[in-house]
Structures are given as structure tokens and as C-alpha cells.
Write a structure and sequence with these properties.
The protein has 11 helices and 13 strands. The protein is of the alpha/beta class. Bound molecules: NADP nicotinamide-adenine-dinucleotide phosphate.
Length: about 325
């Protein structure tokens, strides 16, 4: 039997992959989510409530708590900084404090958006320099989580894609739009490392097993322009890449300044564990091969339509 793990944000893209990866390792896994669900075996938690966080952790006494739970909507963070800081910064630090009291380690998910995107190909040693509110929230939370307990782990990821309970990620959006014959405008001046979420989950599990602490870049092996990535997705899914229209990010209607070149080096993670970051073609190939198993598993999850927000206490 492995570690006793709790995943906060277990219905999310990253969180759900983590739940399955740790379960496959024979770990005892509990998973919480913010919204109330009619079924599905998830616990309910609002990280903003410090007492709730303490009570849930005291009940399950995990040795490791993964926190992919967040409000990850970059534009929403830009427009509503105070509201989103309560979740992304204060909420995560509630978890870090409760974990310190219990002696549990934390794994926090940060982002390439802690950088300004001017230099590119960032290492873990580069100083953070965010240019938007989401990036500032991630940088503040990284600092708080690492200061809370030196055993804590921060994983910076980027452009995560894969099968997802609520199909929100970029690859599933491309698939939906193109299969309906709809065109999409996609940034041709943003370069980053798309990350297959199951690869991120296996990297997380391996780093946790290795007792890794501090900051690691956990992203896909390949840096690519967003439009080029979209074309590779269309080809992998047998869809019409001609429906993808390249456009400068500034013309896509977002209120948020975004780093142009936020690619991350992965040498540190490569040296620490045997599981290695994979590139775009392998990620998409694995995603396609995993579709039947995902469809089977997704039948055990609650209907996203049954999702309701609990009243904030
Ligand atoms: N996806 C990416 O491309 C990407 C890139 C870089 C960094 N990241 C970071 O990686 C992490 C995971 O991202 P993701 O794409 O998996 O996000 P996601 O799919 O939106 O999942 C977020 C999860 O957080 C939960 N949550 C939201 N508010 C909460 C609260 N107040 N208390 C407790 N749980 C709450 C949600 O629960 P409900 O479903 O019940 O609302 C959901 O399970 C985030 O920190 C994100 O910023 C993601």
C-alpha cells in the first residue's frame, strides 16, 4: 500500500488524472471538489473556508495533499482579482497551513504564467516576473507554499490537455469546433509547452515517490506555437486544419496580457525521475488510444449538468 493521498479539485482536468494515477499505484485516495454533485464519490470542500479545510484534513489524515484546485480562468482572474485571490492564494494557503499542522506534504500546481515571456525557455532558477493577475496569484502562492514547509512541492505546468469530465481544454475545444465545421482563430505568436495531463500525473506520482521538494517544471517536452499545436491536433483527430485561422493574441479579444514565449526547461525533472516529459505527437497518440477507457470511466462520474455551487459560508 502506498501513500494516503488527498486530491483537492478531483473533478478537474489535472485533479482527475491524479486521482486515477495514484489509484493505479494502489494508494488510498480521497478526492474533493468545490461544487455539490448528485453522485460520484467526491467530498465537497471550499478551500476558502479555513475551518472546512482543517476539518476535512483532520477526518482523512492524508500524508500527501495535491492541490490542483483553483480558479484557473485567466481572464476571470484579470477582471476579478479580489474574488479569485480568495480561492487561488488564500484558499491554497489555508490548505498549506492545515497540512503543516497535520504533518502532510503539499503538491501545488503553478504555471508558466509566473514569467513575462520575454526571455523564454525558463529554468526553475529564473526569477518570477508575472505580467497578469493569474501569474501574480501563482507567484504569491508558490512563495507561501514553499515557505510553509520545505518538504512541499510546486509543479509549474502549461497548456494541459486530455480527456476531461467538463470538456474545457484547448484540444477538446478544437475537436468540438472542427468536428462541427466551425472555424477557430488561434494565436500565432504564443509559444509554450503543451502538456498531456496523464504524463503530468505520472510525473507527479514519481516526484512524490522520490520525495522531491521545491519547484519543478512539469510540462510537455516540446515548445510549439499555439496555432501549430492546433494544426497537429486537427491532423491527429482527422479534422480539417484549414478551419484554424492564425491570429495575433492581441486580436483575440482577451483582456489579459499573455506571455509570448513562456516555454519551460525540464532538465530538473528529467534528472530527478525515470518518467520523462513527452512531446506533442506522443501525447496526442496516447490521448487517442485512451478514449475508449476514458468513456468507460466517465460513466462512473456525475453528470456535469448536475453541478451546483454551494452557498459560500
Ligand atoms: N489546465 C492548464 O492548462 C493549466 C496550465 C497551467 C497551470 N494550471 C494549473 O493547474 C491546476 C489545475 O488546473 P485544471 O485545468 O485541472 O483546472 P480545472 O479543470 O478547472 O479544475 C479545477 C478544480 O478546482 C476545484 N475548485 C474550484 N474552486 C474551488 C474551491 N474554492 N475549493 C475547492 N476546490 C475548488 C474545481 O471543483 P468544481 O469542478 O467542483 O468546480 C475543480 O475540481 C490549476 O491550479 C491551474 O491554475 C493549469
Amino acid at each position: 500500500m502506498g501513500e494516503k493521498v488527498m486530491v483537492l479539485g478531483g473533478t478537474g482536468l489535472v485533479g482527475n488524472a491524479l486521482v486515477r494515477a495514484w489509484q493505479a499505484k494502489g494508494c488510498e485516495v480521497s478526492a474533493a471538489t468545490y461544487h455539490c454533485h448528485a453522485s460520484g464519490g467526491f467530498l465537497q470542500l471550499d478551500m476558502c473556508g479555513e475551518d472546512q479545510v482543517r476539518a476535512l484534513l483532520a477526518r482523512f489524515r492524508p500524508s500527501l495533499v495535491a492541490v490542483p484546485a483553483a480558479n484557473p480562468f485567466v481572464d476571470h482572474c484579470e477582471l476579478h482579482p479580489e474574488e479569485t485571490r480568495k480561492v487561488n492564494v488564500a484558499g491554497t494557503l489555508n490548505v498549506a497551513r492545515a497540512c503543516r499542522e497535520l504533518g502532510a506534504r503539499v503538491i501545488f500546481y503553478s504555471s508558466d504564467y509566473v514569467f513575462d515571456g520575454v526571455k523564454g525557455v525558463y529554468t526553475e532558477e529564473d526569477a518570477v516576473c508575472p505580467i497578469n493577475e493569474y501569474g501574480r496569484q501563482k507567484a504569491a502562492t508558490e512563495a507561501g507554499v514553499t515557505a510553509s514547509d520545505p518538504r512541499n512541492l510546486v509543479l509549474r505546468t502549461s497548456g494541459a490537455y486530455g480527456w476531461q469530465w467538463e470538456p474545457k481544454n484547448f484540444v477538446l475545444q478544437i475537436r468540438k469546433n472542427l468536428s462541427e465545421g466551425k472555424s477557430m482563430r488561434v494565436a500565432c505568436d504564443i509559444r509554450y509547452n503543451p502538456t498531456y495531463v496523464e504524463n503530468l500525473a505520472e510525473i507527479t506520482v514519481a516526484l512524490a515517490e522520490a520525495g522531491a521538494s521545491g519547484i519543478f517544471h512539469a510540462v510537455g517536452a516540446e515548445e510549439i506555437v499555439r496555432h501549430e499545436f492546433a494544426v497537429r491536433v486537427a491532423k491527429a483527430f482527422g479534422l480539417d486544419a484549414g478551419l484554424l485561422r492564425p491570429a495575433p493574441a492581441a486580436e483575440l479579444g482577451s483582456p489579459t496580457p499573455r506571455p509570448k514565449e513562456s516555454s519551460l526547461r525540464t532538465d530538473k525533472v528529467r534528472a530527478a525521475i525515470r518518467v520523462q516529459p513527452i512531446g506533442v505527437d506522443e501525447g496526442l497518440r496516447r490521448m487517442l488510444a485512451a478514449e475508449p477507457a476514458w468513456r468507460e470511466y466517465a460513466r462512473t462520474l456525475p453528470d456535469p449538468a448536475a453541478k451546483t455551487a454551494p452557498a459560500r459560508r
